[in-house]
Automatic annotation (TrEMBL):
<feature type="signal peptide">
    <location>
        <begin position="1"/>
        <end position="30"/>
    </location>
</feature>
<keyword id="KW-0325">Glycoprotein</keyword>
<dbReference type="InterPro" id="IPR024881">
    <property type="entry name" value="Tip"/>
</dbReference>
<keyword id="KW-0472">Membrane</keyword>
<keyword id="KW-0732">Signal</keyword>
<keyword id="KW-0812">Transmembrane</keyword>
<protein>
    <submittedName>
        <fullName>Integrin alpha FG-GAP repeat containing 1</fullName>
    </submittedName>
</protein>
<dbReference type="InterPro" id="IPR057089">
    <property type="entry name" value="C2_TIP"/>
</dbReference>
<keyword id="KW-1133">Transmembrane helix</keyword>
<feature type="transmembrane region" description="Helical">
    <location>
        <begin position="482"/>
        <end position="506"/>
    </location>
</feature>
<dbReference type="Pfam" id="PF23122">
    <property type="entry name" value="C2_ITFG1"/>
</dbReference>
<comment type="similarity">
    <text>Belongs to the TIP family.</text>
</comment>
<dbReference type="GO" id="GO:0005886">
    <property type="term" value="C:plasma membrane"/>
</dbReference>
<feature type="domain" description="T-cell immunomodulatory protein TIP C2">
    <location>
        <begin position="375"/>
        <end position="476"/>
    </location>
</feature>
<dbReference type="InterPro" id="IPR028994">
    <property type="entry name" value="Integrin_alpha_N"/>
</dbReference>
Amino acid sequence: MGPALELALSALSALSALLLLLLGPRAASALQDVTAELFRAEAHGVVAAFGDFNSDKQTDIFLIRSRKELVILLADVKVPYFKPNVKLQLGDKEITSVMPGDYDGDSQMDVLLTVHPKDLDEITVIIFWGNNRTLDPHSFTELNKTFLDEPLVMENQTCNIALDSAIKMRVPHSHAFIDLNKDFTAGKLLNTLYEHRKCNRQFFHLSVSKQQYFYFQLFLNVINVHVSLQQWIPVLTNLKNGETIWGFVPQDTALPHSFPITIHIGDYNMDGFPDALAILRNTSGSNKQAFLLENVPCNNASCKSVGRMFRVLWELSDLNKIKNAVVATFFDIYEDGILDLLVVSEDTNAEFSIHALRNNFDADAYFVKVIGKYPFGVNQPGPYIMYTTADSNGYLKNASAGQLSQSAHFALQLPYVVLGLGRSANFLDHLYVGIPRPLGEKSIRKQEWTAIIPNSQLIVIPYPHNSPKSWSAKLYLTPSNIVLLTAIALIGVCVFILAIIGILHWKEKKADDREKRQEAHRFHFDAM
Ligand SMILES: [Ca+2]
Ligand SMILES: [Ca+2]
Ligand SMILES: [Ca+2]
Ligand SMILES: [Ca+2]
């Protein structure tokens, strides 16, 4: 019996070591280049927008190629994960931006393009109408008007100050359609050149100088319900890496093809604090590169009042390899709730390449992915999502975000919201979703769901709009890697223990048999 037990114990410890190896922090690089697996030969062009074009619940990618062609890469379950579907050529007009959405309310995704006609300093707008989950190159509407800047896509509202030509707007603008005053109702945040007060609660203005522009973009994306619009707070001050000093890319206002937004926001490590991806420029050279900015506790006087700041992760070799990056944004590759990275670089011939980097940071943290959309709907600007829950120490924790608050100038916002939950695997106590309400309507359009399972995907259908009580929600579970590994390990342990029990049982039986035989023998002997 002794040796068998010893054997079992040593095998168990070997197994637990193997488990630790499986479940413990992975030593591999934090980012993994998966460009070929995703795109094969299609990894060229500028990533211009995201949206589920064919309503199969998988987010598709909208590209601009050679400045004049729109290509939609549809997400697929087989390698390569993105395959070209729609291709549209626009003659001698250059495409400056792509805004997918349903512009006629037939639940088919349409595509709004801003285009830059030859010999003109302004832009025009063309909408291609979606039909049967594809685009007909002959079915489009061209607006009979030219604009100085790109439009902001939002819900229909009565107060359309954005279209009031008497008000001077910044060009390029960074207007947004987002809730700023905790009433779950997206309002318009416009950045004007001068102060204006015209509309009521649905309108906020902010006049920004050129220097504040970058901060403004950042601020808009990380905005939460407690923010005040009173002052600017530096959250990133150290841009020195050894001897090299990096800086933000100066804003290029020349239309077409400028990428004025150089910061995109996403919680890559799911700790509940939004991180950022930024394009920085080597101030002594000419290289532009994408850097991941981690949201960490503040450690200097300048950010004390907000308690948080950004720290640049300088040493990410897969990001550092991409030279002359022009756009870097978050995107959920494999739709598993973990935000990955897409980077666009420009070569010396002004050709653009796409790089896909899978996020392998072993954060051991949880998330909730929420999509607010109308039945059979498409990209929906305006929903506001917030959770409150208790963290593992019992402290109240909350996070919130607006869905599709910006659309112009390669805002590249995702058609859903991913909120990090940190390391606590508890159920979410409360999850609130609100949608914009018309001016004059008193009651807030907001609904609450309780006890949401972490690592799940929630599709909220706020319909009918004016009756939040009847809104429905569908919950999809996305088993994360760690859950899967735990399950495999558990089953392995069970099988192993069963085998040991079997062996021990068999040995015991054998010993019993021997004892019986000996006894029988003794009995015979005694009888003699
Ligand atoms: Ca799709
Ligand atoms: Ca439509
Ligand atoms: Ca974070
Ligand atoms: Ca992912």
